[in-house]
Design brief:
The protein is mainly α and 139 residues long. The chain has six helices and no strands. It is 79% helix and 0% strand.
Length: 139
């Protein structure tokens, strides 16, 4: 396997940017209302979810985004992706080949309507494109 050249600062920036993107994506500014409606959550259910605490969810998400950004940086290094367009392409093919397909398969075996997958897959596409660009360009 070739030697990988990973910029850890780029990995951290990509992960933090993904958390920020998620905060906006699932906020009332963009898709919160549609996502809540698609899930069929009631105000009581939302309060129950808040009471369980979101700290753990954000901590685990942040760790997962760090792992994803690091792996994406490895792939960018292995494929010698160093431009904006190459970062976008790498993010897109990872989304298409893994995130979109795994998410859609899971959705087909759940009670969730397709709207949940569309909103979540859109977020996954956006953050993989973002991560791809950050780690490819910022070597």
């Amino acid at each position: 396997m070739p030697t990988a050249n990973v910029n850890i600062l780029a990995v951290i920036v990509a992960a933090v940017a993904t958390l920020i993107l998620g905060a906006v994506w699932y906020s009332p500014v963009l898709f919160a209302k549609a996502w809540i409606q698609a899930h069929g959550y009631t105000p009581e259910k939302l309060e129950e979810m808040k009471k369980r605490g979101v700290t753990r969810a954000y901590a685990v998400s942040g760790l997962c985004y760090l792992v994803m950004a690091y792996v994406l940086a490895l792939l960018a290094s292995y494929t010698q992706a160093t431009s904006f367009a190459q970062g976008l392409w790498l993010g897109f093919i990872l989304w298409l080949g893994f995130a979109a397909t795994i998410g859609l398969t899971a959705n087909m075996f759940s009670d969730n309507p397709i709207a949940v997958w569309v909103i979540d897959a859109g977020y996954q596409l956006a953050y993989l494109l973002l991560m791809g660009v950050v780690v490819a360009v910022w070597k």
